[in-house]
Amino acid sequence: MNIKRNIFSTMEPGKSKIPGSDAVFNIHDALENARKRMGKFFKGNQILGRKGAIGCVSLEISQRCNLDCSLCYLSESSAMVKDMPIEELFRRLDVVLNTYGPGTNVQVSGGEPTLRDKDELLAIVSYARKIGLNPALFTNGIKCSRKLLEELSEAGLSDVAFHVDLTQKRIGYDTEKELNELRLKLIEMARGLPLLVIFNTTVHETNFNEIPDLVRFFTINSDVVGMASFQLQADTGRGTLHQRPDPISLESVQDKVSKGAGSPLPWDTILVGHPKCHTYVPTLAVNGKAFGIIDDALIFSDFLKDFGNVTHDRREGPLKISWTYLKNSIKHPKWIIRALIYFIPRIWRIKEDIFSARGKIHKISFFIQNFMDENNLDSERIDACSFMVMTKEGPVSMCKHNASRDDFILQTIEYSDGDKRKLFHPLSSVNESKPVVIEAEILKN
After folding, report:
1. pLDDT, tens digit (0-9, with 9 covering 90-100), for 213-231
2. Which listed site, 49, 216, 396, 411, has its alpha carbon 20 to 30 Å from 403?
3. Is the dihedral of CA 186, 187, 188, 194 positive or negative?
4. pLDDT beyond 80 at 356
5. pLDDT score, position 346
């Protein structure tokens, strides 16, 4: 079943009305705030501050999980925390919009978000899309089904990110290669849906040397898989593994990914946030190999200056994305010649692989996330963070949030339910069926 729906695109930079509010959001202010946060790390090829005000924001809709990963970032209290009211989640989505603007990527996550009531999960995704955000589901896939993905897609889901790796201790799987059996099932589950399919892999000592084979697997399946993300082991949360071994670093994982791609990848061309936090490279997947043809930081910097306000849906293929920018090049005709001069030699270098693949070209991106240990936080990196978690007080760096998770998830929350004000206690008894109602007289005092 192929589901068709209108593809959302963000508004042009400038002033855009926030739905349901008298406030006016100014994208220029948000981008300026991002540039200030980046400080000395704001360079010409830095996406934050030019194409967006933030990389993504995580909205944790449940602290519960149906796995117990050896590198889990949840706290020991998480399993006892009740799901917060959906009204509070809607309010937090409003804060995302007011802070970073339309088109912001929101990770609907947890814990395991599919443990939330399905109707509420659909409502959360639908609301995020309605107010102009790009919602993505981050899940281990255990409770996922084709029907659920279809319903979420119809509700406005942009991406689905499946977390599958050896840290999850799934019975019957001893290597990442064996886990490919499960990954293939998830790939087929999502095939044909208008979703960007992502696979997340936590890198640790046991699977470190399997990264090249994983990259080859994702590249071969890039007709469905649009991104492969690798998260480096971090000493945080309730997991049983702690300090990462010396061989695992941002640079060593880059080398492993490049080895699997079949060619050196240009990791420093596109910057997203602090350079020690993560690296990102889009590639063309051809004949089982991945080629990073965006390899000139200066040209990419010039591109951001002229096309920073142009948006596209990242679920689209390379030809459609190219066409989007080609249409906008009418305003910048010099780029037509410049693009031809730039891309033709790079495409020519891989002509033999294109011929062997009978012209079949797909797009897949590789992303490496270098989380910090909870006892070794770098304030400079936190200030320039591109990956936030939405909390009661507002967005907080993911690493800072995980280092003090209980301080955020155990807070009592006051929220509105119609014309009533209520309190939500995260650790209240499971027998307590209703939140506490705050009387009007008490509120006045």
Report:
1. 999 999 999 999 999 999 9
2. 49
3. positive
4. yes
5. 96
Same domain, 147 and 251: yes
Pick from 224, 112, 217, 214: nearest CA to 168: 112
Give the pLDDT mean for 412-440. Answer: 71
Contact 194, 315 (CB under 8 A): yes
Three-state secondary structure call for residue 310:
coil
**DSSP letter string over 268-291?**
TSSB-S-TTTEEEEEEEEETTEEE
Size of the chain in residues: 445
Of 53-57, 182-186, 330-334, the poorest mean pLDDT is in 330-334
**Which of 241-245, 277-281, 415-419 is least confident?**
415-419
**Is 9 inside any structural domain?**
no
The Cβ-side half-sphere exposure at 289, using a 13 Å CA radius, reads 16
Residues 428 and 396 in one domain: no
Q: Is 121 left (phi over 0), alpha (psi -120 to 50) or beta?
A: alpha
Q: For residue 111, say if its preceding peptide bond is cis, omega within 30 degrees of 0.
A: yes
Give the confidence band of 324 by pLDDT, cuts at 50, 70, 90.
Answer: confident
The domain of 113 spans 15-409
* Distance, CA of 329 to CA of 327 (rounded, Å): 5
Which residue in this structure is represented by tokens 């907080």? Answer: 396
Residues 181 and 40 in one domain: yes
Strands (E), 6-152: 15-17, 24-26, 56-60, 105-109, 134-139
**What's the gap between Cα 140 and its chain centre?**
14
Which of these, 397, 412, 309, lies nearest to 101 by C-alpha position? 309
Closest CA to 128 of 143, 141, 142, 113: 113
336 and 431 part of one domain: no
Mean residue pLDDT of the chain comes to: 90
